[in-house]
Amino acid sequence: MKKILLLPSCAIGIIGFFLVCQGSVFASIADEDCIACHSTPDLCNNKTLNLQAFQKSVHKEIGCNDCHQIESDAPHPAKLQPVKCETCHDDAFKAYSTSVHGVKHGQGDMVVAYCKDCHGTHDILRKKDPASMVNHVNLPKTCAKCHEDQALIEKYNIPVKGI
Predict the structure, then answer these.
(1) What integer pLDDT is reported at residue 163 of this predicted model?
(2) Helix (H, G, I), strand (E, B) or coil at 46
(3) CB 147 within 8 A of CB 153
(4) Which of 37, 61, 86, 160 could connect to 43 by a Cys-Cys bridge, CB 3.0–4.6 Å?
(5) DSSP state, residue 108
(6) C-alpha distance from residue 137 to each of 4, 24, 134 (Å)
């Protein structure tokens, strides 16, 4: 497992500036390169990474490229392939695939809840953690993001109009 190197903000800015202006000499993007750009809003079109949240996440030991599978030098193309959580979480994804959300998603509906919608992205915590989006005390708020959205209720004819 890879550790992500945290650099002082001045070093991040300098490295990020070099990568954007000169291009990377690496065959694939290293974690340090990702952090250099994605911790500086001006260098990554405001797609920043909250390093403090990531360092608390369940994925803190995993390298950026393990999930994002970037096959180009920095800077990478603006549009990347979606993260495929099922690569590591096969059993959970099989269970999701048979759920109401998973069946719709499998039919090509990209609006229905997917992994990141309930679990988060770089800030994923264990479900026993009280701050986790999927901790039992937070589920009403997490589910309400969609299940109390009037447009989604109407689009999907959701019978329960409240959480």
Answers:
(1) 61
(2) coil
(3) yes
(4) 37
(5) T
(6) 31, 45, 8
Q: Distance (Å, rounded) from C-alpha 11 to C-alpha 5?
A: 12
Contact 97, 103 (CB under 8 A): yes
Q: Which whole-number Å values give the CA distances from 109 to 65, 89, 106, 114, 159, in the listed order?
A: 26, 21, 7, 10, 19
Determine if residue 158 is left, alpha or beta; phi over 0 gives left, psi from -120 to 50 gives alpha, anything else beta. beta
**Can you give the pLDDT of all 163 residues of the chain as single tens digits?**
444 544 444 444 444 434 443 343 334 678 888 888 888 888 777 788 888 999 999 999 998 888 988 777 777 887 888 899 999 999 999 999 999 999 999 999 999 999 999 999 999 999 999 999 999 999 999 999 998 898 998 999 887 655 6
The angle at the Cα of 57, spanning 51 to 62, to the nearest 5 degrees, equals: 85
User: Which of 58, 21, 57, 19 has the alpha carbon at shortest distance from 35?
Assistant: 19
Please name the amino acid found at residue 120.
G
d(CA 45, CA 12): 16
**Angle ∠(120,126,127) on CA atoms, nearest 5:** 85
| Cβ partners under 8 Å of residue 7, min gap 6 | 15, 32, 35, 36
DSSP 101: H
Number of residues in the chain = 163
